[in-house]
Amino acid sequence: MGAMFPIMVDLRGKRCVVIGGGRIAERKIRSLLEAGGDQLVVVSLQHTTELERLAAIGSIRIRRREYIEEDLLDARFVFAATDNPSVNARVLNDCKKRGILVNMAEHADQGDFAVPAVVRRGDLVLSVSTSGSSPAMAIQIRKELERRYGEAYAEGIARLGALRAHVQEVEPDPESRKRLLREASLEMEERMLHSQYDFIPEEDPAEWLNRIRIAASRRHEE
Ligand SMILES: C[C@@]1(CC(=O)O)C2=NC(=C\c3[nH]c(c(CCC(=O)O)c3CC(=O)O)Cc3[nH]c(c(CC(=O)O)c3CCC(=O)O)/C=C3\N/C(=C\2)[C@@H](CCC(=O)O)[C@]3(C)CC(=O)O)/[C@H]1CCC(=O)O
Ligand SMILES: NC(=O)c1ccc[n+]([C@@H]2O[C@H](COP(=O)([O-])OP(=O)(O)OC[C@H]3O[C@@H](n4cnc5c(N)ncnc54)[C@H](O)[C@@H]3O)[C@@H](O)[C@H]2O)c1
């Protein structure tokens, strides 16, 4: 299929409608919830027990009937995930007509977007897509990334975020900022590798910045 544009979307307040209530619909809902989706609607006569549970606790809304075009009102993202190809095709056409982005679980190349395999480590998000060519390979690579980028990355990235905020406050020169932030990220990566992703000692951003300044100027002299 043609080249696709990967982006990160803030789902808060954006209605996402999943048509179908089976295994695939449940997987889409799960990843939408993990991504912070708070306006999630599922349309189907039958639902998995997990979808029923999520509706009971108010995480999603269920429309207990077959798909009708009105289901698309106010929708920003739609997932056609029924086991009926003609229903999925109808959803696709209705979305195209209305300019709503649609995902086709059956055929990535028919829809507007494909869903990648994802590893989340706090703010670090690694997503893998083969643009629909080999979901099995996407899953395989996702598993490799899970092993390579352990849980400690969540903490590491959070600390780099705090350091960046501090650097933006105290360092006016954009070139130095860039150099310091690169140095910090290199150092963080090395610490996580050597500690085998174990505990990384807490450090004040100001202290850390001092250490980084020395390391960066040493590297500069070399
Ligand atoms: C990543 C993930 C995200 C998600 O779905 O949320 C995802 N598929 C996942 C699982 C999975 N998919 C398949 C199996 C069966 C066994 C196996 O192959 O292992 C399993 C495993 C299982 O079901 O347990 C087979 C399969 N997948 C598609 C078809 C239809 C076709 O190709 O026509 C068939 C053939 C059906 C058949 O085999 O008959 C289509 C798509 N699957 C995509 C994504 C999109 C393209 C992604 C890409 O290429 O980058 C796309 C186009 C749909 C879309 O965009 O929604 C999620 C893994 C989450 C994770 O574990 O990380
Ligand atoms: N994305 C992927 O990774 C992937 C993997 C395997 C299969 N698929 C495809 O995804 C589709 C769904 O698979 P599944 O395993 O979830 O099927 P499933 O049988 O578990 O669920 C199908 C769901 O569609 C609902 N449905 C049927 N007609 C409907 C209508 N008119 N309106 C609303 N809902 C309707 C049913 O009630 C049911 O809840 C299949 O077409 C399959 O080819 C995708």
| CATH structural fold name of the largest domain | Rossmann fold
What is the C-level CATH assignment of the largest domain?
Answer: Alpha Beta
> How are the strands of the largest sheet arranged?
3-2-1-4-5
Number of helix segments? 7
The run of helices and strands is EHEHEEHEEEHHHH
**What is the overall silhouette?**
elongated
For the largest beta-sheet, the strand count, sense and barrel status come to: 5 strands, parallel
Judged by helices, strands and strand pairing, the structural class is alpha/beta
Task: Report low-confidence residues grouped into runs of 5 or more.
Answer: none
Mean of pLDDT: 93
Helical content stands at: 40-55%
> How many DSSP-defined strands?
7
The rounded distance between the terminal residues' Cα atoms is 47 Å
Q: Over the alpha carbons, how many angstroms does the gyration radius reach? A: 22 Å
Q: CATH homologous superfamily of the largest domain - what is it?
A: NAD(P)-binding Rossmann-like Domain
Query: How many structural domains in the coordinates?
Result: 2
Just name the CATH architecture of the largest domain. Answer: 3-Layer(aba) Sandwich
GO molecular function, one term: precorrin-2 dehydrogenase activity
Pfam families: NAD_binding_7, Sirohm_synth_M
Organism: Paenibacillus phyllosphaerae
Pathway: Porphyrin-containing compound metabolism; siroheme biosynthesis; sirohydrochlorin from precorrin-2: step 1/1
